[in-house]
Inverse folding.
């Protein structure tokens, strides 16, 4: 059986999701694409129908599942509409622009009684992170006590404002750190270099493990994500994000990508295929709506720590049984 998917948003990620569904995903077809710019929607839609009305796409009987890649502020309401329609949804992060709105999605899904929402924290599908999780879970490095994260962008996008280094970038480290360590953060400290960039964020966790993260929005040389997990008996970390090395004009090495898409191309492909299969076998994979809520809730509290200069105790309530 082939899953008929509608994609909302045709920016960088929306267009990439359409490409992955069309060219690299088994058991799926794109039947509808929506964007406020109908000409851009038509350019991406291919054989699918182009929509300019978001709600019309979700309600269309041909659309069995929805990918949300529209602006962040639209995510919560669109996810709620998908839940009301009983349609599975892969929602790009964040699940909502605020923790309050993300919790609304969680509550609606709990009331529905089944998981239909997956949040697009694609790092959970990245082969390097998956291998790090396997090594930790195997006990090969002993008890995990430190996780060092690096998150560098070549330059902050023009639309980055205020605390978005935390709410739009660091949220990835929040989610992947919870997933890798299988423990919840309990306290956050944050320091900013002169000018506000880079940031150094430290999380303490229930297990006693410590997470340190450098968030550098204007590193200039390229997009660079790295993680090292330190255990009592060893370490595991990412190798260079490449499969080849080049010798050219007196240099030996690899090229850094300009943004996250090339670095996590495999993760996005694996995520999409996993999501499509999960709908067929009704076995959810990836980050849940609860995970999306927690990431946003913690990010908001880290912003408070940045604004006050004081550590903050992290709170986000009890995980509902649906997500156990």
């Amino acid at each position: 059986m082939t899953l008929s998917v509608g994609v909302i948003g045709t920016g960088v990620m929306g267009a990439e999701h359409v490409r992955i569904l069309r060219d690299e995903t088994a058991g799926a077809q794109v039947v509808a694409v929506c964007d406020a710019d109908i000409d851009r929607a038509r350019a991406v839609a291919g054989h699918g129908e182009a929509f300019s009305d978001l709600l019309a796409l979700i309600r269309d009987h041909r659309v069995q599942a929805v990918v949300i890649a529209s602006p962040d502020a639209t995510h919560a309401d669109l996810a709620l509409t998908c839940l009301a329609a009983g349609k599975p949804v892969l929602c790009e992060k964040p699940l909502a622009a605020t923790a309050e709105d993300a919790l609304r999605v969680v509550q609606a899904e709990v009331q529905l009684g089944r998981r239909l929402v997956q949040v697009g924290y694609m790092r959970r599908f990245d082969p390097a992170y998956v291998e790090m999780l396997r090594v930790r879970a195997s006990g090969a490095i002993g008890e995990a006590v430190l996780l060092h994260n690096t998150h560098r962008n070549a330059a902050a996008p023009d639309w980055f404002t205020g605390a978005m280094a935390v709410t739009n970038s660091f949220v990835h480290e929040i989610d992947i750190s919870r997933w890798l360590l299988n423990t919840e953060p309990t306290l956050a400290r944050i320091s900013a270099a002169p000018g506000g960039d880079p940031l150094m964020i430290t999380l303490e966790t229930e297990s006693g493990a410590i997470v340190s993260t450098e968030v550098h929005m204007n590193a200039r040389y390229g997009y660079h994500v790295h993680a090292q997990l330190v255990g009592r008996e060893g370490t595991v970390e990412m190798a260079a994000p490449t499969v080849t090395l080049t010798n050219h004009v007196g240099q030996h090495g690899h090229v850094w990508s300009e943004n996250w898409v090339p670095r996590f191309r495999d993760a996005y492909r694996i995520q999409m295929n996993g999501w499509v299969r999960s709908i067929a076998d009704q076995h959810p994979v990836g980050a849940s709506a609860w995970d999306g809520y927690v990431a946003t809730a913690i990010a908001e509290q880290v912003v408070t720590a940045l604004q006050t200069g004081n550590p903050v105790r992290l709170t986000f309530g009890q995980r509902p049984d649906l997500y156990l």
Observations:
- The chain is about 40% helix and 25% strand.
